[in-house]
Amino acid sequence: MLTIESRVPHDAIMDGWLCLHDVPLDSLVQQSRRYERAYLAWETVRQVRNPFFNIGTGFEGYFVGNCQSPEEMLAQLLEIGHGMLTSNCRLYRHQYTFKSKLMKTLRGELDDPRAMDIWSTLLGAALGRLRCNVLYNYKTYLFQNETYWAVNRLPFIKYAQCAHHIEQEYVLARFRSSCVSKSDLCLNMLKPSDCDAGFVVSRIGCFGHPLVRAYMREAYRYWC
């Protein structure tokens, strides 16, 4: 088992929202359990059994059997990132301040609820399209099944609220090491025109975090 201890992504805004509306953390945690297996599977692919990189993005599991090399996989990742950036540019063409908030929220420099909601929606749309690979590619299907078989036996994520932050502890299953040598995902070596796209695919997974998703779902009632 690999144990991960860290702060929950965008925990400050969630902690503030919980205090403002007098909602106990346990209530939000219970809402988040429905998303937990999917996130642990994502993190397992990203950190433990990535088929292309030592540490990847999480998207790689949907390309098993379709991509044959790290170079092919990187090209697919950049295509996903560019697609998301293009979508934002089209939708918010003249909203320069908001586009800045989108990137600052992605970098973790800002907690803008609207920006968080948009990144979460883009992630969900991308994964919805990629699930077609599971249906039509047996290697992808097998890889996903093996991953979820292990994930379904993992304990729940543990959370603790402290000093205006929310800490988490979770474990990921270990898998037998492959004899195939894997590359490092060196996003800092990308050409300038690909840097933002690479950063998007490397960071957007945090908006699939179960507690973030539960917060977005519950807080939306107060925004309407």
Give a quick set of tags describing it.
8 helices; mainly alpha; three-stranded antiparallel sheet; single chain; 224 residues; 8% strand
Report on this model:
The chain has 224 residues and is mainly alpha-helical. The protein has one domain (2-174, 182-223). 58% of the residues lie in helices and 8% in strands. It has eight helices and three strands, in the order E-H-H-H-H-H-H-E-E-H-H. The chain has helices at 11-20, 25-47, 70-91, 96-107, 113-136, 138-151, 192-203, 210-223; strands spanning 2-7, 158-162, 165-172. Strands 1-3-2 form a three-stranded antiparallel β-sheet, with helices on one face. A hairpin with a 2-residue loop joins strand 2 and strand 3 (165-172). Helix 2 (25-47) packs across helix 8 (210-223). The longest helix is centred in the middle third of the chain and has 24 residues, at 113-136. It is globular and about 50 Å long. The termini are far apart. The model has no long low-confidence stretch (mean pLDDT 92).
Topology (SSEs and partners):
Layout: E1 2-7, H1 11-20, H2 25-47, H3 70-91, H4 96-107, H5 113-136, H6 138-151, E2 158-162, E3 165-172, H7 192-203, H8 210-223
Antiparallel strand pairs: 1-3, 2-3
Shape: globular
Averaging pLDDT over every residue, what do you get?
92
Order of strands in the sheet with the most strands? Answer: 1-3-2
Total individual domains: 1
Low-pLDDT residue intervals, each spanning 5 or more residues:
none
Helix and strand composition category: mainly alpha
Main pleated sheet: 3 strands, antiparallel
Counting DSSP E segments of at least 2 residues, the number of strands comes to 3
Q: How much of the polypeptide forms β-strand, as a percent range?
A: 5-15%
**Order of helical and strand elements:** EHHHHHHEEHH
Query: How many helix segments?
Result: 8
Helix content: 55-70%
Radius of gyration: 18 Å
Give the termini distance in whole angstroms.
42 Å
